[in-house]
Amino acid sequence: MPTPASPTSGPPSTAPLSLCARHPRVPAERLVAAMVPPPRFDSVRFATYVPDPGRPSQREAVEVLSAFAAGLGTGGGTGAGSGSGSGLRRWLRRDGGGARRAAGTGGGPRGVYLDGGYGVGKTHLLASLWHAAPAPAERKAFGTFVELTHLVGALGFQQAVTTLSGHALLCIDEFELDDPGDTVLVSSLLGRLVEAGVALAATSNTLPGRLGEGRFASADFLREIQGLSAHFRSLRIDGEDYRHRGLPEAPAPADTARVVRAAHAVPGAALDDFPALLAHLATVHPSRYGALVDGLSAVCLTDVRPVPDQATALRLVVLADRLYDREVPVLASGVPFDALFGEEMLTGGYRKKYFRAVSRLTALARDGERLGAD
């Protein structure tokens, strides 16, 4: 496994960490307890979301979600053991308008689905909903779609249903279906949770009825996909990627010497050869990528190059999400991050994942510009 060179000059150095040397083990109970908004969204609230005046849908989203949170009720919201959603039903009866349209009534949708492009603040709004929901933290769950499927894999389906049925609210970020197995799994899980009275909220770049499109033979699983869509009322949020509003272009890659120097100068930084890191990711379950990067102050990478295949690319997407969640700056040498994924990937069924990863890694690269500066 290649090892980046040591610095020959510069400030006092410390031995950098290495992602390739980490082999995290995460107990199943930690997966449940960790289902909260990531550190980047600890302090977000509806009041801190600044709608674009030219995009009325953004202000509407704040109003609808605020009402949705209030409708969960101070008596613990929905979920097993709390009256099977009586607080939400009372709110729907009182509202009779926008809130009713957002969350549905009776046998209709019991959730809100935020659809929009990259960087319009969907995760900010979803995390704000989690914070605003009047239920204790242990009765609210927040995670990405990938984290939810990993949770089911770790606990088993029935135990996952039992555990999550006691919740008032389940928030699912980055909702995408990548294979038929996930379609059936999530459709069954959400159906059981809705029956238990759990309120749902989700974000994605794909409308519920079009989940899975372009990735597998979705027509063969139309019943499951339509079943998922029936759980949600869609709320479209228009806007441009805020990460690109008025910001400079993505920084050019650093030279290797600067990357190595920064890794030795910054306490808590990790230094890894990019091809070696990609190989290491294949040995770590994606549910553990959060633990893999826990505690790092920066990630320094040498010899960044285009990823060789789709399986590797999808693992890198999950790593990029976990780094972005934790606001870990990245400094890298090699090709720029917008050259990570080839044309075939960027026009294929997973293109939205890859564009999100490029957007997030670019934001982290801007944060990393200060690392190793002379």
> What gyration radius follows from the Cα positions, in whole Å?
21 Å
Give the low-pLDDT segments: 74-78, 80-107, 212-218, 244-248
Query: Order of strands side by side in the largest beta sheet?
Result: 2-3-4-1-5
- Name the average pLDDT: 81
Based on Cα principal axes, name the global outline. Answer: globular
Report on the biggest sheet: 5 strands, parallel
Secondary-structure content class: alpha/beta
The secondary-structure element order is HHHHEHEHHEHEHEHEHHEHEHH
Q: Give the count of helical stretches.
A: 15
Instruction: State the helical fraction.
Output: 40-55%
How many strand units? 8
β-strand percent reads 5-15%
Output the keywords.
single chain; 374 residues; three-stranded parallel β-sheet; 41% helix
Describe the protein in words.
The protein is α/β, with parallel strands linked by helices. Helix content is 41%, strand content 12%. The chain has a five-stranded parallel sheet, sandwiched between helices. A three-stranded parallel sheet has the order 6-7-8. It is globular, with a radius of gyration of 21 Å.
